[in-house]
Backbone:
């Protein structure tokens, strides 16, 4: 029976690596997968899901206007799909998460979403909030704070390493911009200004 999965964590936990490994496992057994990622995140190149450890794969892009049910249904008509993988799922809209749920329910295809749970302000991303509400199964991908405790939060830094405590929710970046921390060290780094 197909399910909607949400694999979540903070930055630099290996979500994209896990996604690419899971897709590889399907393909190694002769099963076709369909990879999707946020169109505006082109750090690995346009139409690529890339990992910090250097592996990558081609993917179709989605944006706020994409009908994911329609995209999946069309892909299923042209090939026998075994699983759909969504990278950067925090950027999905509420409606798009429902589209994925419909694909699971009506097309009987498993959908594995990988994304951030919270932003640098400690607030849920819209796609993550919808996935937390609708996913059949949720799995945390863990990483650690510099103190060794589990990291559940992330801070955004400027070019000089100073913590930024305001700004747009979405800013694409990697290790040069974001640092994963445990909640205690996130509170210290942000001066306990949050939540707003």
Residues:
């Amino acid at each position: 029976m197909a399910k909607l999965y949400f694999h979540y964590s903070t930055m630099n936990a290996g979500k994209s690596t896990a996604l690419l490994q899971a897709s590889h496992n399907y393909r190694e057994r002769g099963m076709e997968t369909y990879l999707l990622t946020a169109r505006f995140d082109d750090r690995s190149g346009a139409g690529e899901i890339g990992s910090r450890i250097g592996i990558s794969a081609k993917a179709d892009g989605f944006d706020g206007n994409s009908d994911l049910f329609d995209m999946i249904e069309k892909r299923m008509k042209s090939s026998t799909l075994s699983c759909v993988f969504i990278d950067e799922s925090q950027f999905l809209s509420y409606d798009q998460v429902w589209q994925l749920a419909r694909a699971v329910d009506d097309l009987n295809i498993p959908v594995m979403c990988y994304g951030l749970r919270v932003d640098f302000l400690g607030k849920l991303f819209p796609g993550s909030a919808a996935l937390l509400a609708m996913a059949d199964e949720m799995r945390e991908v863990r990483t650690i704070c510099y103190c060794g405790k589990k990291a559940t939060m992330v801070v955004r830094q400027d070019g000089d390493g100073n913590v930024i405590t305001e700004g747009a929710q979405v800013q694409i970046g990697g290790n040069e911009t974001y640092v994963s921390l445990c909640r205690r060290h996130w509170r210290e780094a942000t001066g306990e200004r949050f939540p707003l």
